């Protein structure tokens, strides 16, 4: 679990009112990320929406990037909840396919919930901001580990090496992330989200169980 650093820019620990102001600034930053391009967001935009001043914003964050980083940490931007779903699911037979569908649904919901923050994190990682590299690495880590664990349990006769199991898990989470990120592009092509969901579940089930997915 990530422990968020709530200190102000000068190192002080805010009191109750200060924490409320800080949270309001984060909420407004998140809203603006969903409504406009990250590069167009200015400190004065966040401050105005939070009904405060730019000076107050700078008491808590040195720049917009730092506010986005704090937002990612405050929302616990990782897939621990999805990893728990994978570990607690039954991956045998028909129940296994139902588990794959549940994972596909949960992943799509998670990604949509955090889409704006993930999009900015990806942009800043591409620009070399190592603070966001850590966030991006953590994002899919627990889900990949969980999938690797269940592959080891369900495909006991396949004699897959530990490295191969983790590679398969890594490919699965990359597939889910890419498909979900570009979901609206696929819809523009005429591919329904329902079909993307089913195809994701097919691939997840086959990779985890080593068996063909049941016919739709």
Arithmetic mean pLDDT: 88
Low-pLDDT runs: none
Q: Beta-sheet strand percentage?
A: under 5%
**What characterizes the major β-sheet?**
none
The first-to-last residue Cα distance is 38 Å
Number of strands: 0
Count, helices = 12
Coarse shape:
elongated
Structural class category: mainly alpha
Helix content: over 70%
The sequence of SSEs as H and E is HHHHHHHHHHHH
Question: How would you describe this protein?
Answer:
There is one protein chain. With 216 residues, the protein is an all-alpha fold. The chain has helices at residues 16-35, 43-49, 54-60, 64-74, 80-88, 93-113, 115-126, 130-139, 141-154, 162-181, 183-188, 193-209. The chain is elongated and about 60 Å long. 30% of the residues are buried.
What are the salient characteristics of this protein?
0% strand; 216 residues; mainly alpha
Describe the SSE topology.
Layout: H1 16-35, H2 43-49, H3 54-60, H4 64-74, H5 80-88, H6 93-113, H7 115-126, H8 130-139, H9 141-154, H10 162-181, H11 183-188, H12 193-209
Helix pairs in contact: 1-2, 1-4, 2-3, 4-7, 5-9, 6-10, 6-12, 7-8, 9-10, 10-12
């Amino acid at each position: 679990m990530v422990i968020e650093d709530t200190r102000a820019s000068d190192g002080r620990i805010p009191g109750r009112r200060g924490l409320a102001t800080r949270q309001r600034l984060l909420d407004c930053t998140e809203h603006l990320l969903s409504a406009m391009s990250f590069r167009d967001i200015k400190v004065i935009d966040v401050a105005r929406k939070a009904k405060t001043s730019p000076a107050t914003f700078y008491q808590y964050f040195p720049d917009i990037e730092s506010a986005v980083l704090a937002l990612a940490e405050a929302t616990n931007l990782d897939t621990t909840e999805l990893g728990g779903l994978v570990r607690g699911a039954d991956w045998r037979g028909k129940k296994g396919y139902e588990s794959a569908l549940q994972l596909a649904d949960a992943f799509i919901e998670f990604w949509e919930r955090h889409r704006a923050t993930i999009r900015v994190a990806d942009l800043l990682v591409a620009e070399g901001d190592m603070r966001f590299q850590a966030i991006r690495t953590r994002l899919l880590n627990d889900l990949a580990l969980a999938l690797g664990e269940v592959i080891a349990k369900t495909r006991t006769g396949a004699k897959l090496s530990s490295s191969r199991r983790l590679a398969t898990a890594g490919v699965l989470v990359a597939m889910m992330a890419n498909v979900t990120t570009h979901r609206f592009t696929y819809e523009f092509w005429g591919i329904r989200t329902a079909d993307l969901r089913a195809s994701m579940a097919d691939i997840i089930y086959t990779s985890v169980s080593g068996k063909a997915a049941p016919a739709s």
